[in-house]
Amino acid sequence: MKKFFLHTTFIIITLISLSAQAQNKISVTNLQCEMLNNPEGIDVVQPRLSWQIKSDVNDVKQTAYQIMVASTLENLNANKADLWDSGKVTSDASVNVFYNGKKLGDRQNAFWKVIVFTNKGEIKSTEKAHFSIGILTYADWKSTRWIGYEKLSKDDSVSQYSRLSARYLRKEIDVKKQVKSAKVYIMGMGLYELYINGNKIGDQVLAPVPTDYTKNVKYNVFDVTSQLKEGKNMLGTILGNGRFFAMRQDYKPYKIKSFGFPKIALQLFVEYTDGSSEVIRTDDSWKLTTDGPILSNNEYDGEEYDARKEMKGWATTNFDDKNWVNARYVQEPGGFYEAQMTPNMKIMGEVKPISIKVTAKGTYILDMGQNMVGWLQLKVKGKSGDQITMKFAESLQADGSLYIANLRDAKTTDVYTLKGEGEEIWEPRFIFHGFRFVEISGFPTKPTLDNFVGKVVYDDIKTTGTFESSDATMNQIFKNAWWGISGNYKGMPIDCPQRNERQPWLGDRTTGAYGESFLFNNQTLYAKWLDDIKYSQTQDGGLPDVAPAFWRYYGDNVTWPGTYITVGDMLYQQFGDKEVIKKQYPSMKKWMVYMEENYLKGDLMDKDKYGDWCVPPESLELIRSKDPARLTDGQLLSSAFYYQLLNIMKKFAKIANADADIAHYDDLTTRIKKAFNAKYLNTTTNSYANNTVTANVLPLAFGMVPENLIDKVFQNMVHEVEVTKNGHISTGVIGTQFLMRTLTNFGRGDLAFKLASNKTYPSWGYMVENGATTIWELWNGNTADPTMNSQNHVMLLGDLLIWYYENMAGIKSNPETPGFKQIIMKPDFKAGLTFVNASYESIYGLIKSDWKKSKNTLEWKIIIPANSSALVYLPTANASDVKVNKGKVSKNYKIENNKLVLELSSGTYQLNVNNIK
């Protein structure tokens, strides 16, 4: 595997050779079903199909399409669309086009291609795509038994520091005929690895994605046709603990959920060439042992592995399993069985350590040079019984030893015992660590850097965004954000990867998910997370602060559970996904009504739990500020936020065909706005409440300020930022979500730039200056009480990444045409940067904005994907000062607020502007 480099991770799609008419000009590629590439076992019977048009010529617009779907690849190659031939459909839609053919049933295979008609001619996709339907009904799983072993082994324990050895299972099967196709449908709780004839199936790790297993259980599907042979075959699985056998058993059971012992349900569906079929299922004839080399696997505490206990060939047919026991039938998890519609995690890259130093006590400290998430692979030679211990941490103490106080009671330790047979290579299977430093003890020789490789693990989703600017601090913050976001993608967005928490807190992603969507193709991840939130809803409508609700934190709140709605809005804005809104709207409305009926008092929302979490405190040693002047009234926060959510719900009601709800939302917003200003607006000082920046930025961002006072309130807020706080951040999680965009949208992009490029406390740059390679949980994360100073969090990013792309690069989806069908390219050229080079792989294709300016001139290279367009704002009102691809501007422009606005169709453009303003 190649060494992992951030700056090379943006997507490149190669143009495909086509017919003579379109060769080297236009192609159709990236065919997707439900935004997945060739997915197996989906449970959507009317899936959405998408494709991209790639072109090296300008002004390419789709005018029509024809989709052909066949039950076999042979039929598709022969243009026999026996499932669906859409015919020529006049439409420019190339994203989320619904399949509208024959009814798709259990295990149905479908192969498809598309012919695209454009204003430049007809293009046939040389790429052929595939999807298959999974198991659609619970009854189809009925005769497939859940099996496992619900007892403790000798060294296992159920305690605060739970230990449980891995379960190994195997089953010999006899394939008596020639195989046409074979697929495995597997639910392995909590985590599994699947083997056939000794070969691991798939490159996924830590599968499946986590859920509240009492609500829903995800199954994975693999095509294993090539793995089976006629005659004897062996199925094997290893079951790890994951979130199922929880990291802390019988410890705070009122708070922490546990689901039982690991278990599995599996079907192998085989079709033979003679037309017959067979289903092999899990039952009590499978053999099982807990006496394998994985002695314990606990996400908080690490994995212990004894190579002396390895069972060579255990997943092959020639292995002697006489000492194994028969698996037991066990209770099912309780949740409904669903296809997993988002990718599993994967080893996405490698990091080579940069130094290794011996300590006074004879151990070694390994420095990876980067706070990363995953695990360490080691290579070692030694004697049988030699034991290597690796303890992971994010930073060091002054004496060079590990700093572990911020890990709380997480042990974060892997242990490997050698078998003593030449070079041994090992890495864990069922845990992950957040770390930069590793303390190595027990190594049989003097270790070198070549003995170790860091494996970077996160969801198998593409990096879609790049950003580079003239400011080095901003560039490093961007890299830190990338590492922090990727590391906290674990089948759900978690808050941190290192201590005894790692929970999917809603409030960390309220606006953060929006910024993340520029860096990663996170659509399916967040669509899945909205399901997690929906499943966590109580019957009366309440939502937790953590979902899936592994921690039972149901305290009612607005700003944290409101993420349910803001993430839905992100999926609509960034990916044009209407279906997710239609699906979630009833539950969203149920929560809004629940909050209204229980907490709306005097037309203000009187329920807040966390305040403006993590404002910079008055003392560097404090976690939370105790100064009332820094804290924002909780009723103000919850009322303003609820007002904003109501406005989003108006939009959702239209999408969900629930127009009748809009009148009620309108009535509530009118009443809340009036009561809010009556209570909190001081017309003498032109400020809200106690005049914190957060108290002022929310009503400005949400449109709650009376029109005649907008400028005065904004200028007052600017004074607080620029003078009172000396150009530094003073907001916490809530205010920071809207700070950068509000400053810029009201004309002070220069002040936003100062906040983004600051190097002194409190700022993102202060983290960089103090050695951070990810984003801290606290503005003072290097000095605060260690009980809460994770060095890999993302919640304090707020709207910074959105600002990077929309306000500095000028890559923003027009809200009127969601999903980047039309792009608004309106950088703030006067904010303080002299160049920005950014890209974003949208659902239509690559968008690029590469600009640099001098005192009076601007050079700007733009790429707009085919079948899309852009409104491009230039810093001049004089068309004669503008050149587009060296030509004059004579049409398709307008003047708006002293800016020349071009409407450009797809393609590559070189813009030159003289006499910029």
UniProtKB/TrEMBL annotation:
Q: Which residues form the Alpha-L-rhamnosidase concanavalin-like domain?
A: 359-458
User: Any keyword NAD?
Assistant: no
Which UniProt keyword terms apply here?
Answer: Hydrolase, Signal
The Alpha-L-rhamnosidase six-hairpin glycosidase domain extends over 463-808
Give the reactions, separated by semicolons, that this protein catalyses: Hydrolysis of terminal non-reducing alpha-L-rhamnose residues in alpha-L-rhamnosides
Q: What EC number(s) are associated with this protein in UniProt?
A: 3.2.1.40
Q: Tell me the Pfam families matching this sequence.
A: Bac_rhamnosid, Bac_rhamnosid6H, Bac_rhamnosid_C, Bac_rhamnosid_N, Ig_Rha78A_N
Superkingdom of the organism of origin = Bacteria
The signal sequence is 1-22
Its top-level enzyme class, in one word, is hydrolase
* Residues covered by the Bacterial alpha-L-rhamnosidase N-terminal domain: 177-348
Give the matching InterPro entries: 6-hairpin_glycosidase_sf, 6hp_glycosidase-like_sf, Alpha_rhamnosid, Bac_rhamnosid6H, Bac_rhamnosid_C, Bac_rhamnosid_N, Ig-like_fold, Rhamnosid_concanavalin
* Name this protein carries in UniProt: alpha-L-rhamnosidase
Organism, scientific name: Flavobacterium magnesitis
